[in-house]
Amino acid sequence: MTPLHKPSDPAALKRLSPMLRAVCLTLDYIEASGPIGLTPSRAFKRYFVEWAAETFAWPGYTTEDLYAVNKVLNEDDFPPLAIMHELLLSTRLARHRQGALHMTRLARQLRLDTSALWTLPAPQLLFATDHTGYTRFGDRPFGNWDIFLNVINVEAQGGLNKDRLCEVLYGPDKSDGLHDAVRTRAALFIHVLRPLCWMGLLEEVRSGEGFEREEHFFKTAVWPDALKLDTDVHLNPITQH
Fold first, then answer.
1. For FRET with 28, which of 15, 71, 106, 187 sits at 20 to 30 Å CA-CA?
2. CATH number for 225
3. Helices 145-155 and 162-170, interaxial angle, to 10°?
4. 154 in the same domain as 123
């Protein structure tokens, strides 16, 4: 597994990583307002889901986006929140007790050290979280993180789109041999590109509308700070966002 190094710029982390911002805001909420209530199925209660949707202002999952397809908001209607909930538990930053989510001693120790805090959810989200439930057919991309990161390291110097990533990884057919090109592209986005964006290592820039919309992914200042890769020797000066 590729090691992630502790980034040196906490301000850049909070600006570039929506997942880290969400973790910090949630811990701040517990510190100020007490444990977060849970439903019988151990999901966040609606009052917190509504607060999180408004406060996180997550790109692509704003209150406007979420209420456009939901009359009321439950945790499962806000996928980044559901994943963050899992991360808080798996990294032992929070625990369930007496029908509520409580902050742990570890979280209290790290809450004000943004860079150290980032080093817990980042490897968990990238290397351990199962994202198949968020793909249409439960697909996984063929390959491993060492390959993905080293390829993206070179190809995203000036901006990388999903088609180009598929072509470099799998050839001109842009298919991993298990799925067609469309499903391969979708699996790479859900399992690889989106988590990298959520942790602030990549930034997604969109252009166009409807069927003309394109997404390009750029390395942020966090990328070279947190990742030391074999392909670093092949890099030209980086375009950072």
1. 71
2. 1.10.10
3. 120
4. no
